[in-house]
Design brief:
alpha/beta, 15 strands, globular, Rossmann fold
Length: 296
């Protein structure tokens, strides 16, 4: 089952009763999305009254809608440089360089660059200078094992967990999906991703129909991370340039809303499926977030 784990904000409120204190839990759940009209054009003027959210089929009150259109971005680019991507690595480098040059706006956005094989390397810390980032990408080569989970875990913990500057927090992960050397488990990664509040976009290095069994298994796990965060999992189609996948991510990020509703239910550890719709006729809501686990 694909799932979403969301623990964005939980506040316990205590009040005095005859038999002591009771707890009421307030949980803010955020759903990233884009909205298009019948011609595929992005719609950018929606407010709280234009959205409907259902949690387990029960309608919830939308408490906030943030327009992330042209909002500042904090993007961590994670590049798989293991031996399994060696054949396509020069193309991945070139596409990554073009993506960062296009998406990082001076004095508004920032990015950090991380590469991983059997280990995880911070190649460039947060900067708004795309040239610094692209220069480091050009120096990389491919070889070794893959610490995919460790890379995601460490970036969330060290670069995003304490960040609160109002920017949209994004991981763009370029990988074939194999993990051979990580110490972190998927559960540890899922918990850390939820705490950090990042959106994860994954670019597969091979077309989906050419994946080996190990890569297919990795793709399933990456799909769960995509569902958890509201990002996307993109594989190049036959004959498609991976640069076009980067472009799709950039367009998505520049036209996003974040729809928030508040849940007062006590955390039950169960999966809560979500359904997000717009009340305006002729519009389509696009979100990859399937639901969340109501964990304490």
């Amino acid at each position: 089952m694909k799932f979403t784990r969301v623990v964005i904000a939980t506040v316990a409120i205590l009040w005095c009763m005859s038999d002591g204190f009771a707890q009421m839990f307030i949980r803010a759940v955020e759903i990233p999305c884009t909205v298009t009209d019948s011609s595929g054009k992005f719609v950018t003027d929606l407010t709280e009254k234009d959205f409907t959210v259902r949690d387990h089929g029960k309608r919830q009150k939308v408490t906030a809608v943030k327009q992330k259109i042209q909002a500042p971005l904090s993007i961590s680019l994670l590049l798989d440089r293991s031996a399994s991507v060696a054949a396509s690595f020069p193309l991945l480098q070139s596409a990554s360089e073009k993506f960062l040059t296009a998406v990082v706006r001076k004095s508004k956005d920032r990015s950090c660059l991380v590469a991983f094989d059997s280990h995880v390397y911070l190649l460039q810390d947060w900067t708004d200078d795309a040239q610094l980032l692209t220069a480091m990408i050009g120096k990389l080569n491919a070889g070794g094992g893959t610490s995919l989970f460790d890379a995601i875990y460490k970036v969330c913990r060290d670069k995003f967990l304490s960040q609160d500057n109002g920017s949209t927090k994004v991981i763009v992960l370029v990988t074939d999906g194999e993990d051979t050397d990580s110490h972190a488990t998927f559960k540890q990664v899922a918990d850390m991703v939820s705490q950090a509040g990042v959106i994860i976009y994954i670019l597969g290095t091979h077309s989906e129909n050419s994946l080996n069994p190990r890569e297919l298994k990795g793709g399933h796990v990456l799909g769960e991370l995509k569902d958890m965060t509201g990002g996307d999992l993109l594989y190049p189609k036959e004959g498609e340039n991976i640069q076009s996948l980067f472009t799709r991510i950039e367009i998505d990020l520049r036209n996003q809303y974040v729809v928030t509703f508040t849940s007062y239910d006590e955390p039950d550890g169960l999966f809560h499926d979500l359904k997000l719709e717009t009340n305006r006729k002729g519009l389509v809501v696009h979100t990859h977030k399937k639901g969340y686990f109501a964990s304490s």
